[in-house]
Amino acid sequence: MPNLKTARKGKIEEFIKEHEADPDGDLDKLDALIKRPTQGSEKATQPTSIPASSDD
User: Fold this and answer.
1) Is 0.85 surpassed by the pTM of this model?
2) Where are the domains of the chain?
3) Torsion of CA 29, 46, 48, 39, to 10 degrees
4) What is the mean pLDDT of residues 7-35?
5) What does the buried/exposed string (b/e) look like for 22-39 if buried means 16 or more CB atoms within 10 Å of the residue's CB?
6) How far is residue 33's CA from residue 42's CA, in Å, rounded to a whole number?
7) pLDDT by residue (tens digit) across 25-51?
8) CA 22 to centroid of chain Cα atoms
9) How far does Cα 23 stand from its chain's mean position?
10) First CA to last CA across the chain, in angstroms?
């Protein structure tokens, strides 16, 4: 059974066939996880300034 890493290198069809019968995940838990702030997210949400290039 190929893992996802090897499947990405050319065995994706085999990987899909082997995992088609896998049960769906819990979408409510996934949504809650996505919406949950992560540690240090306050820093990540602050706008960053990118210095303008000087073509003088």
Assistant:
1) no
2) 4-33
3) -50
4) 88
5) eeeeeeeeeeeeeeeeee
6) 17
7) 899 998 998 998 877 655 555 556 676
8) 19
9) 20
10) 58
